[in-house]
TrEMBL record, chain A:
<dbReference type="InterPro" id="IPR034227">
    <property type="entry name" value="CuRO_UO_II"/>
</dbReference>
<feature type="transmembrane region" description="Helical">
    <location>
        <begin position="51"/>
        <end position="70"/>
    </location>
</feature>
<feature type="domain" description="Cytochrome oxidase subunit II transmembrane region profile">
    <location>
        <begin position="24"/>
        <end position="122"/>
    </location>
</feature>
<keyword id="KW-0813">Transport</keyword>
<keyword id="KW-0732">Signal</keyword>
<dbReference type="InterPro" id="IPR002429">
    <property type="entry name" value="CcO_II-like_C"/>
</dbReference>
<keyword id="KW-0249">Electron transport</keyword>
Automatic annotation (TrEMBL), chain B:
<keyword id="KW-0812">Transmembrane</keyword>
<keyword id="KW-0472">Membrane</keyword>
<dbReference type="InterPro" id="IPR033946">
    <property type="entry name" value="Ubiquinol_oxase_su3_dom"/>
</dbReference>
<feature type="transmembrane region" description="Helical">
    <location>
        <begin position="179"/>
        <end position="202"/>
    </location>
</feature>
<feature type="transmembrane region" description="Helical">
    <location>
        <begin position="28"/>
        <end position="51"/>
    </location>
</feature>
<comment type="similarity">
    <text>Belongs to the cytochrome c oxidase subunit 3 family.</text>
</comment>
<keyword id="KW-1133">Transmembrane helix</keyword>
Automatic annotation (TrEMBL), chain C:
<keyword id="KW-1003">Cell membrane</keyword>
<keyword id="KW-0249">Electron transport</keyword>
<feature type="transmembrane region" description="Helical">
    <location>
        <begin position="341"/>
        <end position="366"/>
    </location>
</feature>
<protein>
    <submittedName>
        <fullName>Cytochrome ubiquinol oxidase subunit I</fullName>
    </submittedName>
</protein>
<feature type="transmembrane region" description="Helical">
    <location>
        <begin position="414"/>
        <end position="438"/>
    </location>
</feature>
<dbReference type="InterPro" id="IPR023616">
    <property type="entry name" value="Cyt_c_oxase-like_su1_dom"/>
</dbReference>
<keyword id="KW-0679">Respiratory chain</keyword>
């Protein structure tokens, strides 16, 4: 009877999951499951390892729990043993510790490796640098190599690492493009590095993950990954057809509002902390910075 | 020679304030409070340690700001007051009410000297325009040292209420327990000051 | 005059929802005042409750406050979920939504979970360890009134002055004046400072109570597991709250006095706040969950009619968790650029802390093993915890794997995770404790059938609410978004989550009905031991008399009461008249209430920068302290004749 009930429960769960996933369209909407670059792929790989290990533990607990619940229920005629003083069993306790330690180790090793691996841009690839400033409530992107600037939109070349240098002239935000990889905070008076790479062309959405006020929901941007040639063409177009950004334009951007994407053929250097240029991925938490201009 | 053994020999050796269970509990509770207070100061020290170089666009650095003179005077006053506070407890343990009160008064006077010197020091910095609005360093400095100063001021008020109780009620389990707790508090503030003097003033001057 | 009105009632407090709240508050207050006056209950209220220092009554007041706050926080949650039910919704605007998620989080953590935990401490701990009260009864009352007035302060922000709106974590510089004018954030800061002082005092109180006031024979390793978890929770409180207080005070200084701690310019460093906050915040997570672990240990053993499995392993696990919980705070901000080495250290410590937690879960299952499981509502909450919490724990480990956290941070995966552990761990555990100890508090049993309805609604609602949120995390939905558009595929899962939330709400309504109904019609517990309990609180009558134990029990074993029952079989609760002695008890005092009131007045002055009101409040506090220190008349003797009469009336007097 109980077995039948649990079978029914399992069937019901599977059905519910299937419906839930199909309704939500288990397709490309699950952005984290569809990486478009090496960083996101590596992170997804770790997620899969940890999820698999944890599912084993969850199932182990659920099965043991289910058996205990069914077998040792107080009901008339229950034949299962009743040993009210049974309160320790060395082997069992060591077994539990061993299972936990093994599970923790399985997760710890790739965590260790990937944390260090993802901290550095792979050798032999020259990254393109993009300076990112979160403002209220828009993203300002500056290309120090190309000398152009954009708002709420970036083009990046495929198969080439992009080093994002992140800062804020606003409350904290996080810079996140789920299909390219995980997020990093933007904080005033700090510059933090984050590298991502797109391995296939496409349009990927990005957004802020940290609440930054009433316009927070508008802290979105698009990342357009294109071939190196197309990227160069785009840079050239912006350089030749768009106006340069003046300090006055920058101050306009500091206003509390949200705007559509914009493009500038140049930008004043003072809009980004000067000392980060040439900055590698060595940066730490308490890196000394000049205060950003008001 | 057979001396009669006192049945509660170990009991009677206990200081008065530990003989009553309620009072002894309060002393343990006060130690726990000091632990939280220590963590409060530890947090402020951590903030100060990170902020001492964050002097803003124009603000003075620790080296430019500090004058060692007042800091040394404050140190001497507070260390001496800690010693006289110890003497007060010593008198209390010997059952001398007047001696306890007398040393407590000396402690209070030294404490008042400390607080006034500190206030004058703060005023002299602010007179130069270096108030805590100016930089993260100044904010952290005034908050850390000021928190200690507020603790000392509170201790002075506490000691005054203690003198009234000691004078009126004599040395009972309750008044001795209060005196003992006050002494713990005062020595604790002394230790915090030693850290302030080295971490803030000496370290800032080097 | 008009500027004063504008300050008290800015536009954010004159929207429809706030105005309806005003009407409700006025009507409820009027009804309460009418009731108290009509039935001449003011004196009773003052004498028996507002000035009490009895831990059992303070526990009940904590419980009432916590359930009220669960209602407020729950309504907030339903408003949030209603807003997110469909894409592009305009039920709440962004300003409104921001305020509501801020109050939801803050209330649930500081004004619902914490007082519910303290309710359990107060109701159970002294009785469990065979003590007549806590170590510092008056301080205990002060803790309560600081919490109560802080909670009141925080709640009135909704209708007077405006709510805080920067999230329960309130990271600067968003909380600085430049980005957050108005008084809302001041409310948040003052409420947390004041309740934090009360909480710290509670920590000191229970630490000393458990260390020094256990019944003779109760060694540390004979303590009930709940006493153990209370002890380590108290230690965690002592070490966790000072950094929070510092973070709050420094932010307040920035806002009120123009300092430069967390500002954008002048060298301020918002990151410092984040460190201080999570130095508190991570131990806080264990402050929330460890008491529940203790309750499960009591409930599972009692209703499996069996000893707790692996007692010493459990104790060492709890100690390990306590120690390790101070080494994990950075995992709340792996994505703030601390560098790979630091991140790996905190990632591994996070994975490490899962080991003792996992061991405890297995030990509860083994406690059931070879037992006889009785399905009471208290046991069902404990049983629901195991399969639920293990999911939350597992996703916690997934979040601890640093590079994975870069994808999960601040997403709905995180939201699902911490609701999974806080509801599945803390709330299930505390509700288990409420159902378990209710007869001891009130002398009546809760109706089991209603309780099961409440349980199933809440439990199923929980799964329907939060499982879709894990999926939403994988779809890239981040927390604190007031709305979303069609294109992301988030709509159906959000709708599902909203439906689940309303089912949970229905469960809460049934539960409150269950409480009220049982208080009027519930079966009276005449034995004092309705569950055939194992620990000393079940040796007292329900509810326990003011002095708890007419004679302090002597403990010879773990599960002290069970051992006594095994040895004597019957008649163990009877006491001989000649065994009765005078008992010294703490005396009621108005000081705790007045001190809470002074802090309230002080806080109102600080919130609105009305310095003279702040000074009045501060002077009130000083007067309370002075009166307290010169008041030597803080206890009373209960003569043996009174005790004999009480015991006789309870049928516990021999001969």
């Amino acid at each position: 009877m109980s077995l039948k009930r649990s079978k029914r429960a399992i069937r019901f769960t599977v059905l519910a999951l299937a419906i839930g996933l199909s309704v939500s369209g288990c397709g490309n909407d699950f952005v984290i499951l569809h990486p478009a670059g090496p960083v996101a792929a590596s992170e997804l790989n770790l997620i899969e390892i940890t999820a698999a290990t944890m599912i084993v533990i969850i199932l182990l607990v659920w099965v043991l729990f289910g058996i205990a619940l069914v077998r040792f229920r107080e009901k008339p005629g229950n034949q299962a043993p009743y040993r009210p003083l049974w309160d320790h069993n060395r082997a069992l306790e060591l077994g539990v510790i061993a299972v936990s330690v093994v599970a923790a180790t399985i997760i710890a090793i790739p965590t260790w490796n990937k944390t260090f691996a993802l901290d550095r841009i792979p050798a032999g690839k020259t990254p393109i640098v993009i300076d990112v400033t979160s403002l209220d409530w828009k993203w300002l992107f500056e290309y120090p190599g190309q000398h152009i600037a954009t708002v709420n939109y970036i083009d990046v070349p495929t198969n080439r690492p992009v080093l994002f240098e992140l800062t804020a002239n606003s409350p904290m935000n996080t810079f996140w493009v789920p299909q390219l990889g995980g997020m990093e905070y933007t904080m005033p008076s700090e510059v933090l590095p984050l590298w991502l790479e797109a391995s296939k062309p496409g349009l990927y959405w990005g957004r802020s993950g940290n609440f930054s006020g009433s316009g927070f929901v508008h802290m979105t941007f698009d990342v357009h990954a294109v071939s190196q040639a197309a990227f160069d063409t785009w840079v050239h177009t912006v350089r030749t057809t768009k106006p340069p950004m003046t300090m006055a334009d920058y101050r306009q951007l500091l206003k509390f509002n949200w705007i559509a994407p914009r493009y500038y053929s140049a930008y004043p250097a003072a809009t980004f902390p000067a000392e980060t240029h040439g900055f590698t991925l060595e940066g730490g938490m308490y890196m000394e910075m000049q205060p950003t201009p008001k | 020679m057979n001396l009669p053994v006192e049945p509660n020999a170990t009991q009677t050796k206990l200081p008065l304030e530990f003989t009553d269970n309620h009072e002894s509990l309060k002393i343990l509770g006060f130690w726990s409070f000091l632990a939280t207070d220590l963590l409060l100061f530890a947090s402020l020290f951590a903030v100060y340690a990170v902020y001492q170089s964050r002097i803003g666009m124009a603000g003075p650095s620790p080296d430019q700001l500090f004058k060692l003179g007042p800091a040394v005077v404050e140190t001497l006053l507070l260390l001496t007051s800690s010693f006289t506070c110890g003497l007060a407890v010593y008198e209390m343990r010997h059952g001398h009410k007047t001696g306890t009160i007398a040393w407590l008064i000396v402690t209070i006077l030294l404490g008042i000297g400390f607080v006034t010197t500190e206030i004058r020091e703060f005023v002299s910095y602010i007179a130069l325009g270096d108030s805590w609005h100016h930089s993260a360093f100044l904010s952290a400095f005034f908050t850390l040292v000021g928190t200690h100063g507020a603790h000392v001021s509170f201790g002075i008020l506490w000691a005054i209420t203690l003198i009234i109780q000691l004078a009126g009620r004599g040395l009972t389990t309750i008044t001795t327990r209060k005196m003992y707790m006050f002494a713990l508090y005062w020595h604790f503030l002394d230790i915090i000051w030693v850290f302030i003097f080295t971490v803030v003033y000496l370290n800032g001057k080097i | 005059m008009s500027s004063l009105l504008a300050q008290l009632f800015p536009p954010s407090t004159t929207r429809n929802m706030e105005l309806s709240a005003d009407v409700l508050i006025i009507l409820t207050s009027a009804a309460i005042i009418y009731y108290l006056t009509r039935w001449h209950r003011w004196k009773y209220l003052w004498r028996e409750w507002l000035t009490t220092v009895d831990h059992k009554k303070i526990g009940i007041m904590y419980l009432i406050a916590a359930v009220t706050m669960l209602f407020r926080g729950g309504v907030d949650a339903l408003l949030l979920r209603a807003q997110l039910a469909v894409p592009n919704n305009h039920f709440l605007g962004p300003l409104h939504y921001d305020e509501i998620f801020t109050t939801h989080g803050t209330i649930m953590i500081f004004f619902m979970a914490m007082p519910l935990i303290f309710a359990m401490f107060n109701i159970a701990i002294p009785l469990m360890i065979g003590a007549r009260d806590v170590a510092f009864p008056r301080l205990n009352a002060i803790s309560f009134w600081l919490f109560a007035f802080a909670g009141f302060l925080f709640n009135i922000s909704f209708v007077i002055g405006g709510s805080p709106n920067a999230g329960w974590t309130s990271y600067p510089p968003l909380t600085e004046l430049a980005f957050n004018p108005g008084v809302g954030q001041n409310y948040y800061l003052m409420a947390l400072i004041v309740t934090g002082i009360g909480t710290t005092a509670t920590g000191i109180n229970f630490l000393v109570t458990i260390l020094r006031m256990r019944a003779p024979g109760m060694t540390l390793m004979r303590m009930p597991m709940f006493a153990w978890t209370t002890l380590v929770t108290s230690v965690l409180i002592l070490f966790a709250f000072p950094p929070l207080t510092v973070a709050m005070v420094l932010t307040l200084f920035d806002r009120l006095f123009g300092t430069a701690f967390f500002t954008i310019g002048r060298g301020g460093m918002p990151m410092m706040y984040v460190n201080l906050f999570w130095l508190f915040g991570h131990p806080e997570v264990y402050i929330l969950v460890l008491p529940s672990f203790g309750i499960f240990s009591e409930v599972v053993a009692t209703f499996s009619r069996k000893k707790l499995f692996g007692y010493s392993t459990m104790v060492y696990s709890v100690l390990a968790i306590t120690f390790l919980s101070y080494g994990t705070w950075v995992h709340h901000f792996f994505t703030m650029g601390a560098g790979a080495a630091v991140n790996v250290f905190f990632g591994l410590s996070t994975i490490l802390i899962a080991i003792p937690t996992g061991i405890k879960i297995f030990n509860w299952i083994f406690t059931m093993w070879n037992g006889r499981i009785k399905m009471t509502v208290a046991m069902m909450w404990a049983l629901a915890f195991i399969p639920t919490f293990v999911v939350g724990g597992a996703t916690g480990v997934m979040l601890g794997a640093v590079p994975a956290d870069y994808q999960f941070h601040n997403s709905y995966f995180l939201i699902a995770h911490f609701h999974n552990v806080i509801i599945g761990g803390t709330v299930f555990g505390l509700l288990s404790g409420v159902y378990y100890w209710w007869p001891k508090m009130t002398g009546r049993l809760l109706n089991e059938r209603q309780g099961k309805w409440a349980f199933w609604l809440f439990f199923l609602g929980f799964w329907v609410t939060f499982m879709p949120q894990y999926a939403l995390g994988f779809m890239g939905m981040t927390r604190r978004m007031y709305t979303y558009s069609h294109g992301f595929g988030w709509s159906s899962l959000n709708l599902m989550s909203t439906i689940g939330a309303f089912v949970m709400g229905a469960g809460f309504v049934v539960m409150v009905y269950n409480f009220v109904w049982s208080q009027i019609h519930g079966e009276i517990d005449v034995t004092g031991d309705p569950w055939d309990g194992r620990t000393l609180e079940w040796s007292t009558p329900s509810p326990a008399p003011e002095y708890n134990f007419a004679r302090i029990p002597v403990v010879t074993d773990r599960d002290a009461w069970w051992a006594i029952k095994q040895d004597h079989k019957s008649n163990v609760i009877q006491i001989k008249p000649q065994e009765i002695q005078d008992i010294e008890l703490p005396k009621s005092s108005a000081i705790p209430f007045l001190m809470g009131l002074s802090f309230f007045v002080f806080s109102v002055g600080m919130v609105f920068s009305w310095w003279w009101i702040a000074v009045v409040g501060f002077l009130g506090f000083v007067v309370c302290m002075l009166v307290g220190t010169f008041d030597y008349d803080d206890h009373k003797e209960v003569p043996r004749q009174v005790i004999q009469n009480t015991e006789s009336a309870l049928g516990r007097l021999q001969g």
